[in-house]
Amino acid sequence: MEKIGIIVCGSNGRMGRSITLLLNDYSRLVFIGGVDSSYSDDEITSLAFSAMEDLESKRIPAGKFLTLKEALHLTAKIKNKVVIDFTSKSASLIHAEEAMLYNTPIVIGSTGFSDEDANIIKGYGRHIPVVLSGNMSLGINVLLNIVYDASKYLGEGYDCEIVETHHRKKKDAPSGTAKMLAESVAKQRNIDLNERGVYGRCGDVGEREKDEIGILSVRAGDIIGEHKVIFAGNEEVIEITHKAVSRDNFARGAIKAAVWLSEKNKGFYDMRDVLGLKYS
User: Fold this and answer.
1) What phi and psi values does residue 262 have, to the nearest 5 degrees?
2) Partner of 122 for a Cys bridge, out of 10, 18, 239, 268, CB 3.0 to 4.6 A?
């Protein structure tokens, strides 16, 4: 099968490093460069990019780039390549536009996007293939179905609250995964999360309203990611929990998305499309 070149944005970050290392496990994939603003000028490698024309050889020197635009320009001869981006919402918006300009598929795992941001990225899907997901793991995406079904069978008599916990360095809250879980409940209950979502409580907030979906964010230590969905009725409480024990889980999902995306011409997708998951 044809080789696929991979450019990793945020390659010096936690997720970027995981992805870069795991690419060695896939014979079809070739790491052709890392993009990270933390590289200094003396770290940027001058490469003989003509060597990259033959991806079959897998004898390709990996490059370091300050910008995705630079990477895409210098690797223009490699037609079959995909960008995997785990940076920040602001950087990812720039990278998505640059990927579109260079007609290159992109997988985005950054979080914290507003609806307006997401619509901008969705627009790029009219020109190139794009996967945007708040969580790339198989477990979380299956969990969305479980939560949806639990909400359906338990009914509105059970209040729903979500608690998400991440490491102290995570900058956005709530997590993209918590939003996805809340959206699965809102979708089942036919309510608007923008109107009924409650993000933490403080002061004299009054009694909990019937259709509220509460989301609480915790930031502490080096916790990779934990999410708990609570359905509380008058006589019982059901808790559904997912704990990430390694970032490799998310990295493998992103790599799977990149391979899947390489076979698409254009379109806007999420990880559930990649995995073929649908709500019942």
Assistant:
1) -65, -15
2) 268
Query: Annotated catalytic, 166?
Result: yes
The DSSP line for 113-164 is: --HHHHHHHHHHTTTSEEEE-S---HHHHHHHHHHHHHHHHH-TTSEEEEEE
Find the catalytic residue in 3, 89, 95, 166.
166
Sign of CA dihedral 204, 209, 211, 214: positive
Whether 56 shows a pLDDT value over 60: the answer reads no
- Say what angle helices 115-124 and 89-101 make with each other, to 10 degrees: 20
- pLDDT tens digit string along 115-146? 999 999 999 999 999 999 989 999 999 999 99
Of residues 64, 122, 170, 266, which has the active-site annotation?
170
- All domains in the chain, ordered by first residue: 4-136+247-275 (3.40.50.720), 138-244 (3.30.360.10)
The chain-wide mean pLDDT, for the chain, equals: 90
Q: What pLDDT shows up at residue 45?
A: 43
Nearest to 222 by CA among 275, 150, 165, 279: 165
227 is catalytic: no
pLDDT at position 48 is 31
Give the pair of three-digit tokens for residue 217.
């964010």
